[in-house]
Each structure stands twice: as C-alpha cells, then as structure tokens.
Amino acid sequence: MKFRASIVALTIALIAVVSTPDHGARAESRATGNARGDAVVTEAVAAAKDGSAVAVAADPTTTSAINAVIDELRTGEDASDAGAPEDAVVTASGARVAGDDQRTRFIIDLSRSISFSTSALASPDRVIIDMPEVNFDLPAKAGENGRGLVKAWRYGLIAPGKSRVVLDLSAPARLDKSFVLPAIDEQPARLVLDFVKTTREAFLSEYERPRSLETAAPKGDRKEVGEASRSRPVIVLDPGHGGIDTGATGVDGVHEKAVVLEFAKLLKKKLEEKGAYEVLMTRDDDRFIRLGKRVDFARQNAANLFVSIHADSAPQHHVRGATVYTLSERASDVIAAALAKRENSADMLAGADLEDEPDEVADILVDLARRETKSFSILFAKTLVAEFESAVKLIKNPWRSAGFRVLKAYDVPSVLVELGYLSNKHDESLLISGEWRERAADALVASIDRFFQPRLAQGQ
Description:
Number of helices: 13
Largest sheet: 6 strands, mixed
Order of helices and strands: HHHHHEEEEEEEEEHEHEHEEHHHEEHH
Strand order of the largest sheet: 11-10-12-15-13-14
Helix content: 25-40%
C-alpha cells in the first residue's frame, strides 16, 4: 500500500471517527471546539508515519477506533518489503522509548519487516525480544537510558543468525500490543511494543520463558582422546562477552567484547605459529555464549589450559594495568569480589535463563581433581605475572582470586586475564594499539611455553 494512499485513507477514516456522535465528538466539541478533531487527525497521521502512540484522543472509544484504522493500514502489503530478499541481513537504523511509568512504547526502525518473539525473566524484571540476525547500526550509547517502564536496554547477536534485545524494566509490565509496521516509501519498517504497568503476579504469568539460542559445545563429560591427540597440549582461549553482552565500554566508546576478540585472535596466531599447541577459541566472532557453555567447551575438547581474556573497568579512572585471576571460593580482596560479581552476571544481562544451569558435581574424585587443577592454575598465573612484569603495566598485587564461574572446570587449569582498564584513557589507547597487543601477546606466549616446558621437553 503506497504511503500517500495510506495517509489519505487514514485521514478520511479519522475525520469520520471524530465527527460521529457515537465516538464522542459532541463532548470534545463542547470542551475544545472543532480544532480538537483536527488535532486528532494530525497526531494520528504522525502515528502512522513513525509508529508512536496516539495520545490526543480524549475518550477510549475514539482511541480504539484510531488504533483500529492504524492496525488495518499496518496489514497492507508493502512493495518495498516484498522486494527485499528474505535472506538479507536486516539493519536496525534507530530505536527509541516513549511514554511514562504507566504506558511505554519501544520502537526499533528496521530496513524491512521481520518476525519476532517475546519472553520475560524476573529478578530483575526483563523482557526479551528474539529475532533473526540484525545489524544494529545504532549510536554507541544506545540503550543506556530508557524512559517510563523501560529503564535501559541491550542488543546484539545471541547465536548464528539470531539477534536479541533485552529490555530492563523499572516495574512489572504487561505487553499490551506488539507488531511490525511495514516500510512505506521513505519510512523504515518499525518493530513496536506497547507495555502497560501491571502486578508482579500478572507479570510472572504473562510471558513464556526465553528459549536457549546460543550455540557451543554440548554438556557432558570430558572427551576421551587418543594418544595422537595428546601429542600437543590443547589450549582454549576464551574472549569474554560477545554479541548482546558488550562487556565494559571505554572512555572513547571502545567495547570490551571487540578488544578481547582481536587480542585472542592474535594470541591464537602466535601460538599456532610455534607448532607445539592445538589452539581453540570459545568464539571467533561477535556472538554471545553462556559462561557454563564456555567451561563445557574447554572440557569437551580435553583442554590442558583455559585462558579467559577480558578488559576491566573501574569508577576510579586513574586505575590502570593488567591483572591475572584464579578461582577461589573466597575472594582475595574487595576488588576481586566485585569483578567476579560483574563477570558472573553476563548471562543474566543477556537474558539467559539461569534455572537451566546444572548443579556442581560433588564427588571425592572430582574434589581431588579440583585441588590438583587449582595448583596448576596458580602456577600458570604466577608464571604469567612474571612474564607480564617486563612487558606491560600491572596493577598492585596483580595475581588475585575470586569465584569466577567461567573458571570452574574442575579438571582444566584456568585463569582469567584482565588486560587493562577501559575506564582509563591511556589503557584504552594501549588496548587498541597494535604494538602493545604484540608485546602483551608475546608475554602470554612465553608464559605458556614455560608452563608446558616440562611436558614438551619429554615429548608428551
């Protein structure tokens, strides 16, 4: 349906609506005069253009009639949408929130219409929007501040071919309406969700739980490998965050997920060039992977070392330098505890259902393996700190420990490396510097060589 024809039809329909006694025109005329009807028409036409709410109409019957007309126009076929290839990646060019703490509308501008589904999780209250893969061409700080019932929102790739938007709610909200307006002439397609404040009980019963969309190694026991496979140590590099989970954001807008992915790729290349290791990565593109799946991946591939790579952030912008963390039930200090809490919340922020997480295994043999693994993890952490000392700046007490979920493979020596602080302008510039990355990666390679030296010397 062409844009001009749509607006003409809408205008004619609305003039009929506001001039019919049965739709409250007499009461509006007495209160505000004929200009009121013109205002309703004008705002409704604007609503048809940008998908925003119609708020001018004074009585519910008029509003309902207006929305009915908009719904009818919405279902019309759109030539530009029909001509778009179905397998082309959709681009999101804009997003916004309108409304108040009683009714709120969330809108995303899209290059063409898409299918979508919604679900929700409580504690904290979140609404999850799952859709086909979308290229989010949005401002760097999009989603940091919301409005009304939506206090903030995040977006990104959750799995190959799948994207997700997570809305953080300021109060329990019911999804009143959700639809996609097709692209019309110069206007983009729009995904629109209308929320109405509700009770907690109603919120918990309103939505389905989110589906698990991310892909990684399946759950299970450590993979059995033959002697040929054991000829080279297996190292798993884990670039933190990814997809919808951006991690920390730098002073100049650099995202942690991008920095650590590029560094991990460089480190993998350097390790593979030595020919002594088999090197795997939990992710090699911008996708979200749950923390437990990262651990599973290391165990499934019989890893001999797991290195999770991150970049930190702190309220104190003067803090800078690298840190190496190992697993412990009790945090070594307040800073380590706070960092572990932030890192462990990654699944929640991405809209993952934490009820799917398996319980930890309690077994005497597992406990013995865990103790041995802890000793090897500490050995590698100390080795890495020693190599880092001559290559990069370290924070005070650079080896620390806390309860990081991503380090909980009981039979894989594991460390988490914070390369620096994105909240510090100087560290941020270093983290994207090719020269600094080369130096830091070389130090990591040297520490891995030292760690595996006895095994490599024996040809095992």
